[in-house]
Specification:
The chain is an alpha/beta fold and 384 residues long. Helices cover 29% and strands 26% of the residues. The chain contains 11 helices and 15 strands. The chain is globular. The N and C termini lie far apart (41 Å).
């Protein structure tokens, strides 16, 4: 079951900080929120049916007076309680300043804006964030992709994010314990199974092309994206952003730690993958891309490309991390924003998914990287 969450309780508070990058595409963007409950799976940490939250960014009609989404919307209907939990161990002056900032940040999407059907149905992209981060950790990238004509479903699972708030006001707190792979992979699989329902009624009715599906994720979300792509034929292409390939630190790629039947599936299925890797500062971007391709490419028979990002830290790939983390980690995330990150990531992701889901020239990725000379790209073509 997946149900839209009412926005009737959302309140505007404080001053507004309007972000002006990295949009634009040709469409304005709306955002709405869903609550998914998979009664067939048990949450092993809470011993209740598995549930998770999804925010959908989508092409929207241009409307004057549309109400802008806020960063804290994902904490409704318990914003005050959520922010108190995330900041409860901070000194009072630091806490008050941070609370004012978090409540004031406005996104560039509009709350539940009417969808734009003129170019529908649109390809759909699933986004899974890094461990400890929530579904708005790359909100501006999700918005930008939606402005280019994608429906983007950003998700976070219980305990995987530092905090998830459910529609009944329940606060589900991190960290995730035990198995850190299969719960998220299961959530992605369940969400894929709900696409027809989302497309059948409500805000996203007739908006989704269920035959054109991609997935991307950062860190933990990156290997969840890779694994999900090979477990679900519906997923046509995947991008992992600065992550282990398969979720395990290993002398190999980590694939060897998975069941043999999954290993066989990966090595026999042609599935386009893109890997974005932060690399040491001052290194040659092209050599770094070729090194990563040689190290990781043996797992795949399909198209596999690596883009190297010398000088990018792991956190540089989070473009709107301000509500992620707790306590002083949350404070640190206020300054962990690289100025060119959102624009660069949007350009690369749009180019890749356009080539895999819309039939654009697959060589455009190399042209895209030429627009970013500090990066390098290496590609392994699919086996014939």
């Amino acid at each position: 079951m997946i149900q839209v969450v009412s926005h009737s309780h959302l309140q505007d508070v404080g001053l507004v900080q309007v972000r002006t990058n990295p949009l634009p595409g040709r469409f304005p963007v709306g955002v709405c929120h869903y609550h998914a409950i998979d009664a067939t799976r048990m949450d092993e940490q809470d011993r209740v049916p598995r549930q998770f939250m999804v925010s959908a960014f989508y092409p929207a009609e241009a409307r004057e007076g549309a109400v802008g989404a806020r960063l804290v919307d994902i904490f409704e209907p318990a914003v005050t309680e959520a922010l108190e939990y995330l900041t409860d161990d901070l000194e009072s002056e630091t806490k008050e300043e941070l609370l004012r900032k978090l409540r004031s940040i406005e996104l560039q999407s509009a709350r539940s804006s009417p969808p734009e059907h003129s170019a529908a149905p649109y390809p759909v992209l699933i986004y899974y964030p890094a461990g400890g981060c929530n579904r708005f950790a790359n909100a501006d990238v999700c918005e930008a992709l939606a402005s280019h004509g994608y429906v983007v479903l950003a998700m976070d699972g219980p305990h995987d994010a530092s905090l998830v708030v459910f529609p009944d006001g329940q606060l589900c707190k991190g960290p995730l314990q035990g198995d850190y792979i299969s719960p998220g992979v299961g959530d992605v699989g369940y969400l894929l199974g709900q696409l027809d329902e989302l497309n059948g009624e409500g805000i996203l009715s007739r908006m989704i092309d269920t035959k054109r599906v991609g997935i991307f994720g950062h860190s933990r979300g990156g290997y969840i994206a890779n694994i999900s792509a090979f477990l679900n034929e519906q997923v046509k292409a995947a991008v992992s952003i600065d992550s282990f390939l398969w979720g395990y630190m290993s002398e190999g790629t980590g694939l060897e730690k998975h069941p043999l039947d999954f290993q066989a599936k990966v090595r026999s299925m042609s599935k386009p993958l893109l890997r974005l890797c932060g690399r040491p500062d001052g290194t040659d971007p092209q050599k770094e891309a070729e090194f990563c391709l040689k190290r990781d490419g043996g797992d795949f028979i399909g198209d596999f490309s690596v883009v190297a990002f010398p000088g990018w830290s792991h956190s540089d790939f989070m473009t709107t991390p301000w509500s992620c983390g707790k306590g002083y980690d949350l404070v640190a995330n206020q300054s962990r924003v690289r100025a060119d990150a959102a624009e660069t990531l949007t350009d690369i992701l749009t180019t890749f998914f356009d080539s895999r889901l819309r039939g654009a020239d697959t060589d455009q990725l190399h042209g895209c990287i030429r627009r970013h000379p500090a990066l390098g790209v290496a590609t392994q073509a699919a086996m014939k």
